[in-house]
Design brief:
Blueprint: H1 5-17, H2 19-45, E1 56-64, E2 69-76, E3 83-85, E4 91-98, E5 101-106, E6 138-144, H3 148-160, E7 164-170, H4 176-183, E8 189-193, E9 201-203, E10 211-215, H5 220-233, E11 241-245, E12 257-261, H6 268-282
Parallel strand pairs: 1-5, 6-7, 6-8, 8-12, 10-11
Antiparallel strand pairs: 1-2, 2-9, 3-4, 3-11, 4-5, 10-12
Helix pairs in contact: 3-6, 5-6
């Protein structure tokens, strides 16, 4: 006998509320939540701000055009459009790379930019308030774990000049988060050392040079002004090459941030010269 419509409705409602319906539904929800967690945890643990290092390649000669002069040698991987300022203070732009040569053309754009107010001696940012509570101010030095001995040289020289040095190591890779964390300490400068042996730069006489690395963010002039001031304090034989990289190092977070590649051949006295010149470059702001 066919049931009245109101009884059929009650029967359907009872089926929905029965454990035979609810338990499979809960099981399906729990399963999808479990899958979501399995996917989310590894993704969350990935360092999204990790920066890839520039790869090393075969040794290449750096040729200037149109005069075909020799600037030196490098085993860094270059991309057309990248640029640099050589130890003599001349700016160059990469035009091509082939057959063991890097071809460069004069490029004076960087040197013609106006000075940035962030690096003006009359300008005082509230971001530096922590530094002014100390004698000369503080400097954050970020370095590879294996370079602790070298970091101690920097610390000793800068401390002797009256600066407080915050040492921060990293195990394998550099990241933008390192700059953000360092900025929160309110330093006068943030220096990050890259691992030695990644690649090098030699002048025409075969002498290895320090490389200052800058990324091309909108306020790069601030960082460049700081690096050029540091360059001025270096002895002529110790002048560095300044490379404008395609990588984003996070330097936009702080105007006196620079990444550095120190030659593997550098001894203690050469590192002392480098760090002492940094102290002289910063003192007008301390």
């Amino acid at each position: 006998m066919k049931q009245p419509w109101w009884n059929r409705k009650n029967t359907k409602q009872n089926n929905i509320n029965s454990p035979y319906f609810v338990l499979p539904l809960l099981g399906t929800i729990i399963f999808f939540l479990f899958i979501t967690v399995l996917i989310a945890v590894p993704l969350y643990s990935i360092a999204w701000d990790v920066i890839e290092e520039v790869p090393r390649q075969e040794r290449q000669k750096i040729i200037t055009w149109p005069d075909q002069g020799n600037l030196g040698w490098t085993n860094r991987h270059w991309e057309p459009g990248e640029s640099f300022i050589d130890p003599e203070g001349k700016a160059w732009k990469i035009s091509s790379t082939s057959f063991g040569e890097v071809s460069v053309w004069p490029y004076e754009t960087f040197l013609s930019l106006p000075p940035d107010s962030v690096c003006n001696q009359d300008f005082t940012s509230l971001a530096f308030h922590v530094s002014f509570q100390e004698s000369q101010g503080s400097i954050v030095l970020i370095y590879p774990q294996k370079a602790l001995e070298e970091a101690r040289i920097w610390e000793r020289v800068l401390t002797k000049q009256g600066f407080k040095v915050h040492l921060k190591d990293y195990s394998t890779q550099i990241s933008r988060g390192q700059i953000k964390e360092a900025y929160e300490k309110g330093p006068l400068a943030i220096i990050r050392l890259h691992e030695k042996g990644q690649w090098n730069w030699e002048d025409a006489e075969g002498t290895e040079k320090v490389a200052f690395l800058l990324d091309r963010h909108p306020r790069v002039q601030s960082n460049l002004s700081f690096v050029l001031r540091w360059q001025e304090e270096l002895p002529k034989k110790s002048k560095a090459v300044i490379i404008f990289c395609r990588q984003s190092y996070g330097q936009h977070l702080f105007p006196r941030t620079v990444d550095i590649v120190v030659p593997q051949s550098f001894k203690q006295e050469e590192i002392e010269t480098l760090s002492a010149s940094l102290a002289r470059a910063i003192k007008p702001f301390s």
